[in-house]
Amino acid sequence: MAEQKKEEFLDEIEDSDLDQDELIDIDAEAAELEKLDEVTAERDDYRDKFMRALADAENARKRADKDRKEAENYGGSKLARDLLPVYDNMKRAVESITDEQKEIAGSVIEGVELTMRELVNVFSKHGIKPISPQVGDKFDPQLHEAMFEAPVPGTKSGDIIEVSSEGFVLHDRLLRPAHVGVSSNS
């Protein structure tokens, strides 16, 4: 019975009015599917390369922005560092002025004080801030440089006992540490 149905089916196929052109060429379809798979893989590869190039461009832009900001903020650090001794000398000069000298050369001293104030304003304008530790503060090795250690009664070890010169930071970077004396009491 099964044999008879099989023969009838085959006879029907032979008797059908289908042209050879209408029959599906399985090999041609398989080749087209392979080509489609190749094109899809190539498209995915190009998309991946494009996304990587886009990410690289974005990273380069961010790096350039960071470098530009860093150059803007810290580009003048050498000049600032070279101006610190000028600040120190002017500060010592202003602090050493006596009342008698003010009477004799008042306008010259006023000019030096104005110059000192202008230097401080320029420092502030460009992000240079003084580090001014006080006697009794705790020594911070990130901001202070110990010039000497001495035992001083009534102080704890690591307390600042003398400030020799102020330190300075440029934005968040140390230009010069404050020079201090530190207690060495146990």
Give the arrangement of secondary structure elements.
Blueprint: H1 2-15, H2 26-74, H3 77-95, H4 99-104, H5 106-125, E1 128-131, E2 144-150, E3 160-165, E4 167-170, E5 173-176, E6 178-183
Parallel strand pairs: 2-6
Antiparallel strand pairs: 1-4, 3-6, 4-5
Structure explained in plain terms:
The chain is an alpha+beta fold. The chain has 3 domains: 51 residues; 51 residues; 59 residues, Head domain of nucleotide exchange factor GrpE (Nucleotide Exchange Factor Grpe, Chain A, domain 2), CATH 2.30.22. It has 5 helices and 6 strands; from the N terminus they run H-H-H-H-H-E-E-E-E-E-E. The strands form 2 sheets. The protein has a 3-stranded antiparallel β-sheet with strand order 1-4-5. Helix 3 runs antiparallel to helix 5. The chain is elongated.
Give a short summary of the structure.
Helix content is 58%, strand content 17%. The chain is an alpha+beta fold and 186 residues long.
The largest sheet has its strands arranged as 1-4-5
N-to-C series of helices and strands: HHHHHEEEEEE
Please estimate the helix content: 55-70%
Largest sheet: 3 strands, antiparallel
End-to-end Cα distance:
112 Å
* CATH homologous superfamily descriptor of the largest domain: Head domain of nucleotide exchange factor GrpE
Q: How many individual domains? A: 3
